[in-house]
Design brief:
The chain contains 13 helices and eleven strands. With about 475 residues, it is of the alpha+beta class. It folds into two domains: about 190 residues, Hypothetical Protein Pfu-838710-001 (Beta Barrel); about 270 residues, CHAD domain (Alpha solenoid).
């Protein structure tokens, strides 16, 4: 059983080799070439098996790996390695599951992609545990395609898995390190199949009634945390605005999950505070993307003073760049590395209280608490202030996330309720966009030195008044629906 912590280096490995944890240890450097085999229709990958043959020194080593269990960069997977005569797999040296697949598909197996990278490996002792620290730098190649490879793997050779996180937290002083869940094999499969890097949406959280509440809570948090990790590299690089959107959604889901599981024990208070701060920075940058690209152009197009509109538009562009720069700086800061690693450690190693609590009663209690909060806020918000509408929107989001988390143990009545809730959430989202855009426009006007924004204020007031009717209709429809749990 291989236990390792995989880490992404968003700013490269500069400074890592000079870290105090490694400076007195002589690294072993090797150039590794690895061939990955599969059928043309990727049967091994679909069955969660990676079959590779790697050149090591003058010989070749065949390895079969199964899909890892874990999350937050920590994985435990079955791995079996044996020496082979050359760069071709040998069925007689495979574990039974892979051997059976070999017998069935041997004629179709071929090299689908390869990796070539330099590996610098340090063997260190920490808190009574033995750890291999491996820095891999090179590329993944599939026919004419190539993708860079730069990652750090901490493999537990003996001792306690907690030492992997302690080592990562210590090494983070030398370079930003983020937990990373994508294996070389999974990245190679995507490259070979021509699947482009793209923003990742939330995966379904597949809970089953046989789980305990503690197991379900951990699975929900892992699901949301994995969603966040998958979108952070693209958010930092700014390849697509959707990465930022998905990262913000993921963090909201994660914080909603922490709130659901308060009775089961949550992460440290500092972790909660750190995610709240990260959420504010993600929200600031995302607001400028949305409002600057969707709502504010409508105001500028209608503004009678074209010169003033142009100056405010320029001010908004400056503030958007500043928000993205502040987010990027924070993502590379040591405090973000500590935050992500501390959360990963909590997910991997913590044990929630009340482990014998059944999932379904706990799910119903969580949904009842969230649902009652929504219904309590409905009537005051529908005839109340923007602040009351905002509070209702947050309550609706928390209930919507809870319904998504628990969908595997809910009946059709709950799914019908979720559709009604979705209509109200959409209306609340449109209203919130107008509120946020109005505030952002005031900031942009102040930056541009424009004092008179009465036209914009009137425009936003008219748009919000028009939306109030739709909000009242969807809110009253939800209010008449009983809570179905």
């Amino acid at each position: 059983m291989e236990i390792e912590l995989k880490l992404f280096l968003p700013a490269g490995a500069r400074g890592l080799r000079r870290h105090a944890l490694l400076e007195d240890v002589r690294p072993v450097r090797r150039l590794l070439r690895t061939l990955y085999f599969d059928t043309p229709d990727w049967r091994l990958a679909r069955d969660g098996v990676a079959l590779r043959v790697r050149r090591e020194g003058r010989g070749w080593v065949q390895t079969v790996k199964t899909e890892g269990q874990g999350g937050g960069g920590l994985s435990a997977r079955l791995e079996e390695s044996t020496a082979v005569a050359g760069p071709t797999p040998e069925a007689g040296r495979m574990p039974a599951p892979a051997a059976r697949l070999w017998e069935k598909f041997a004629g179709a197996l071929g090299v689908r992609f390869e990796t070539r990278f330099w590996r610098d490996a340090w063997h260190i002792a920490l808190e009574g545990s033995e750890i291999e620290v491996a820095l891999d730098s090179g590329a993944i190649r599939a026919q004419e395609r190539e993708a860079p490879l730069c990652e750090l793997e901490l493999e537990l050779k003996s001792g306690d898995a907690a030492a992997l996180f302690e080592a990562a937290l210590a090494l983070a002083d030398g370079a930003p390190l983020w937990p990373y869940e994508a294996s070389k094999a999974s990245r190679g499969v995507a490259l070979a199949r021509g699947v482009p890097m793209a923003p990742v949406k939330a995966a379904d959280c597949l809970l089953t009634p046989g789980l305990s509440a503690a197991q379900a809570y951990n699975a929900i948090c892992r699901n949301a945390y994995g969603h966040l990790l998958a979108n952070l590299p693209g958010t930092l690089e700014g390849r697509d605005d959707e990465y930022l959107h998905q990262a913000r959604v993921a963090l909201r889901r994660l914080r909603a999950a922490f709130r659901l599981g308060r009775e089961l024990g949550g992460p440290p208070a500092a972790t909660l505070q750190g995610f709240a701060h990260l959420g504010r920075l993600l929200g600031e940058a995302r607001d400028w993307d949305v409002q600057g690209g969707l709502v504010l152009p409508q105001v500028f197009a209608a503004w009678p003073d074209e010169a003033a509109a142009a100056r405010v538009r320029d001010g908004a562009a400056v503030l958007r760049r500043e928000a993205h720069a502040a987010l990027a700086e924070h993502l590379l800061a040591p405090e973000t590395t500590r935050l992500l690693l501390t959360c990963a450690r909590w997910l991997a190693l913590s044990r929630a209280e009340y482990p014998d609590t059944d999932l379904v009663p706990w799910a119903h209690r969580c949904l009842d608490r969230c649902g009652r909060e929504v219904h309590r806020r409905l009537a005051p918000a529908l005839s109340g202030s923007d602040a009351q509408i905002h509070a209702l929107r947050l309550a609706v989001k928390r209930l919507r996330y809870a319904l998504e988390f628990f969908q595997g143990v809910l009946d059709k009545d709950a799914r019908a309720y979720a559709r009604r809730l979705g209509r109200l959430q959409d209306d609340l989202g449109h209203y919130n966009d107008l509120c946020v855009a109005g505030a952002r426009l005031e900031q942009a006007a102040a930056r541009a030195g424009i004092a008179g924004t009465e036209f914009a204020a009137g425009w936003f007031a008219a748009q919000k008044a028009a939306l109030r009717g739709a909000l009242r209709q969807s809110g009253e429809e939800l209010g008449r629906a009983p809570l179905p749990w």
